[in-house]
Design a protein that fits this description.
The chain is α+β, with helices and mostly antiparallel strands. The protein is 41% helix and 25% strand. It has one domain (4-197): Gcn5-related N-acetyltransferase (GNAT) (Aminopeptidase, 3-Layer(aba) Sandwich). The protein has eight helices and seven strands. It has a seven-stranded mixed beta sheet, sandwiched between helices.
C-alpha cells in the first residue's frame, strides 16, 4: 500500500484506536474465550481497550498508528517487559471497571492472562500485544509495515515476544525472524502460537 503514514498515537485517539482494534479482534479465538460470544463482545472489548490504552500502552508502552490519508487503518500495541506499570493504588482503582466489563468471565480472563505471562521470557524483551488492521485494508501490507516500523526502533540487543492467533499472522511473523515456540492454550478455542524473535546476542529460550 502506498501513501501510508505511520506515527505514534496520542490521547485524543484512544476511542478511535479502541474501536478499530475491537472490530478487528472481536472474533479472534482468545477474545471469544475471554469475553464469550454475542453482539456485546465488540463493545466489551472496546471498553477494555480504552482502559488499557489510556493507563497502560500510551502511558508506559508504544502505540503505533497507520493512516491512509485521514483514515485510521491499523494499530500496533507494544509494551517493554521492564516498563513501569504505574502506582499500585491507581491500578486498584481500575479494578471495578474491569469487573463491570468482564463480569462472570473474570476468572477465565485471569487464567488466559496467566497462560500468556508464564510463557514470556524472564529477561527484558518487547511484547507485541496486538497488531490490528481494519478489515477493509487487510491483505494490503499494512500489518507488515506496522511491524517493520516498530521492529526497526527496538534496540538490536532486545528480543521480541508475541502470540500469533491465526495461521496468517504466524506466517507474517515468521517472515520477520520469529520462531514458533509452541501452543498457548485458551480454553476450548484453538490455541495461539507463542513466537519469539531472538536478539543478536540471545538464542531461542528453552525451558529448564
Amino acid at each position: 500500500m502506498t501513501g501510508l503514514t505511520i506515527r505514534p498515537a496520542n490521547d485524543n485517539e484512544i476511542v478511535a484506536v479502541a474501536t478499530l482494534v475491537a472490530l478487528t479482534f472481536a472474533n479472534e479465538p482468545y477474545v471469544r474465550a475471554m469475553l464469550g460470544h454475542g453482539d456485546e463482545v465488540t463493545g466489551r472489548l472496546q471498553a477494555m481497550l480504552e482502559l488499557q490504552l489510556r493507563y497502560q500502552y500510551l502511558a508506559h508502552g508504544e502505540v503505533d498508528l497507520a493512516y491512509e490519508a485521514d483514515e485510521l487503518v491499523g494499530a500496533g500495541l507494544w509494551m517493554a517487559s521492564d516498563a513501569e506499570s504505574g502506582p499500585t493504588l491507581a491500578k486498584l482503582r481500575r479494578v471495578p471497571s474491569y469487573l463491570r466489563i468482564l463480569g462472570r468471565r473474570l476468572p477465565i480472563a485471569i487464567r488466559i492472562e496467566y497462560e500468556s505471562v508464564r510463557r514470556q521470557p524472564k529477561f527484558p524483551h518487547w511484547y507485541l500485544s496486538m497488531l490490528a488492521v481494519s478489515p477493509d485494508h487487510q491483505g494490503k501490507g499494512v500489518g507488515r509495515q506496522l511491524l517493520e516500523y516498530r521492529l526497526s526502533r527496538i534496540p538490536a540487543d532486545r528480543p521480541v515476544y508475541l502470540e500469533a492467533s491465526t495461521a496468517g499472522s504466524a506466517r507474517l511473523y515468521a517472515r520477520h525472524g520469529f520462531v514458533d515456540m509452541g501452543a498457548v492454550p485458551i480454553g476450548d478455542e484453538p490455541p495461539m502460537r507463542a513466537m519469539w524473535r531472538p536478539a543478536a546476542k540471545f538464542g531461542v529460550p528453552h525451558d529448564s
